[in-house]
UniProtKB/TrEMBL annotation:
Record's GO cellular component terms: amphisome membrane; cytoplasmic side of plasma membrane; ESCRT III complex; kinetochore; kinetochore microtubule; lysosomal membrane; midbody; multivesicular body membrane
Region (Disordered): 1-62
Topology versus the membrane: Peripheral membrane protein
Subcellular location: Late endosome membrane
Name assigned to this protein: Charged multivesicular body protein 4A
Pfam families: Snf7
Superkingdom assignment: Eukaryota
GO BP terms: autophagosome maturation; late endosome to lysosome transport; late endosome to vacuole transport via multivesicular body sorting pathway; midbody abscission; mitotic metaphase chromosome alignment; multivesicular body assembly; nuclear membrane reassembly; plasma membrane repair
Ranges of Basic and acidic residues composition bias in the record: 1-10
Length: 178
């Protein structure tokens, strides 16, 4: 028994059903398998935002972020100290075995080199964290300065309005004496 092909136009009955659309590209197939990119999803995301499902949680406050960065810096400083200690131990081990046991000395030097690489990576991470902490502190300070300047501007505006209203009752010839 031979199978029917959709091109034969033999109807929808049977093992092979005619498709209503051409075969999809690989990208479309993967998008559907992963559950994204369909028309319904786009429409639902718009409705979700309309009805409040698109809200995101607020991030941590600057003070919380600074505190977390300081805690992480402390951890990394402890790790640095530990790695420096291990480097010294491996160096002592390499010196100890020197010419007597060349293989053990080389292994100790390899471990020392690996610890030095970890130390360099930790140093880079620590400097990045310090930079981020300083940036957050500067941003917080700048925001406070801007709030103060805005308050001062509002106060000046109110003071000038008071002056203007006091002088409204005087004619041009009369001087407004404050």
């Amino acid at each position: 028994m031979s199978r029917r092909r959709p091109e034969d136009g033999l109807g929808k009955a049977g093992p092979c059903v005619m498709r209503h659309h051409p075969p999809r590209s690989k990208a479309e197939v993967w998008r559907t398998l992963r559950g994204g990119g369909g028309r319904g999803e786009l429409a639902m995301s718009g409705l979700g935002r309309l009805f409040g499902k698109g809200k995101k949680e607020k991030g941590p406050t600057p003070e919380e972020a600074i505190q977390k960065l300081k805690e992480t810096e402390k951890i990394l400083i402890k790790k640095q100290e530990f790695l420096e200690q291990k480097i010294q131990q491996e160096l002592q081990t390499a010196k100890k075995y020197g010419t007597k046991n060349k293989r053990a000395a080389l292994q100790a030097l390899r471990r020392k080199k690996r610890f030095e690489q970890q130390l360099a990576q930790t140093d880079g991470t620590l400097s990045t964290l310090e930079f981020q902490r300083e940036a957050i502190e500067n941003a917080t300070t700048n925001a406070e300065v801007l709030r103060t300047m805005e308050l001062a501007a509002q106060s000046m505006k109110k003071a000038y309005q008071d002056i203007f209203f006091r002088c409204l009752g005087h004619s041009r010839e009369e001087r407004c004496l404050l």
